[in-house]
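Methods: example folding runs. The two proteins below were folded one after another, and each record is reproduced exactly as written to the output file, sequence line first and structure-token line second.
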Amino acid sequence: MLSTIADYTRLTTDLGKSMTQVATQPDVSRDTDYFLSHIGNVKTIDDFLKDYRLYSYAMKAYGLSDMTYAKAFMRKVLTEGVSDKDAFANKLSDTRYREFATAFNFAANGDQATSTSAATTGTATQYVTQTMEQNAGDQNEGLRLALYFTRKASTITNAYQILADKALTQVVQTAMGWSSMISSSDIDAQAKMITDKIDLTDFQDPTKVTKFVQRFAAMWDATQVQSDTSTNPALVLIAGASTSASLDTTMLTTLQNIRFNR
């Protein structure tokens, strides 16, 4: 039985303990030790990009592992920094690049860029968080999405930030019961749909964020059960029409207990 809500509650009830368990895993501990003991030796962007172990660690910490290969792109992100509103990172819709350039702010701090708390312990914390979410996703993609949304929610100030992030978009669409097909519609229409139905200021309230994530988790689990049932001939033959009716009743009951109020 799927239990995204139960797993989410277990991990977030004592987040510090959950983070410590991940941080002390041998591979995570080893990579973090290397990063913290060597990052201070990096004085230039070239130094940073040449040490693959440091660079890839930092990229994973900010959720950019899939762009580790794009060194020319990342060089531009780091070279221009974030101080100028027209800087490359500030023009990108994906805020992860701005976060990365802020943490490793060579443009503003020069050879001291890697000695800040953001570049050192801040990045290490981000790495552990990313690893925890990745591990969760290996078991349950819905749990990874729930954890990610919880972490990013307070940074959301407009609908376009949601739409620029595939994971955030998936959480919102699932929680609201919207088909993923709406992603092919006009971007402004999608943004209006979000702001018409969701008060984004609620995402500054941890209690309301938790309620929204619980709604997502309930919808996610219900959708996965439906999918598994509909694609398994044996289950279809055994369960028949009563399975769908029972599932609908269960889902509605759960959602009634996790109302997301504007």
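Second run, written to the same file directly after the first:
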Amino acid sequence: MPAIRTVRRTPAPAEPAGPRLEHVVPFRFSAADRDPAPGDPQPYVDHLRALHSAAGTADPTVELDWLTGGARVSYHDMVRVVVERLGAELAGVDLVVTVDASPDCRHQSFPACLLAAALPGDPLVLGISEQGVAGPFTALRLAHDQLRAGLRRRALVLVVEQSTLPQGSFAGPVEDVAVALLLDAGPGPGPRLERPEVGITGRGPGAVPAAPAAVPGHPCAGAWLTLADQLAGPGGPPYGPDGRLVIADRDPVLPYACRAALTRPAPAPQPAVLTEVAVRPVLEPVA
């Protein structure tokens, strides 16, 4: 009788087009996350006064209720909570890029330096500040290039927003939030990040539309909070027919128009089935 044997062979995976987005983790903070001894706010007040004096603008520190009575959840507090909650997920991170839309209400704190001290190893640390909605796109572009070139293995991009800001300074965040984006250069599940783009829309009246594209109340982290919700939803994010999801934003004040695209993860390759048939000869007696 014939003997039939099935052999399964898995094809080698194709080279990835870009780093994969492992996780997008949102954080929302409250007064319970604040350091019980946040320190003297006077250095921050002095710094603000010096900036506005040099620029010839109104002093925002005449009334300090926004500072002394505000939430005062600093970037220092946010970094501590992020490290505690992510825990083992930060293992192997060798690139850290922090993004903030405004200076910290605790003048002595720098989130990138705090993260570097909290993480194992010796990660490369970068910080991006005051680029409006372009900040996270710039950070992701830096991480993309480092991982794509093989210079780094895993990256953490941390976008932070705080609500303790001078009144009337700009349409600031309505709450204290952060979004952690973890990227990996190797194979595995998760969408692939194409290289983000930051374009200049022009300057002058009418160059930038008056209506902001950012999520209301979150001028820097809004798009990424939305992405986190979509990735965690039951149906997943709304990828287009071409398998791509585009995140786009335009700053209402600064002349930046930004976009980044995620490519839907390809389905796991099915093992190729090779069927081998071996026929056993039948010997007949010779008459």
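Comment on the second run: The CA atoms of residues 129 and 145 lie 19 Å apart.
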